[in-house]
Amino acid sequence: MFKKIMKAVMFLIGAAAGYGVSLLATSLVPAFHDYSIYVSVFLSVLFAIIFYLLSDTVFDKIINVGDRVEIELRRFTSLDLILGLVGLLVGLVIAFLLSQLAMNIGIPVLGPVLSVIFYILFPYIGIIVTTRRKDISNIGEKFTQKSTVKKSKKKDTELYKILDTSVIIDGRIKDIASSGFIEGTLVIPKFVLQELQHIADSADDQRRKRGRRGLDILKQMQNEAKVDIEVSSEKIDNVEEIDDKILELASMMNAKVLTNDYNLNKVAQVRGIEVLNINELANAVKPVILPSEELEVEIVRAGKEKNQGLAYLSDGTMIVVEEAKKRIGEKLKVEITTVLQTAAGKMMFAKIKE
Question: Zinc-finger as a keyword (predicted)?
Answer without folding.
Answer: no
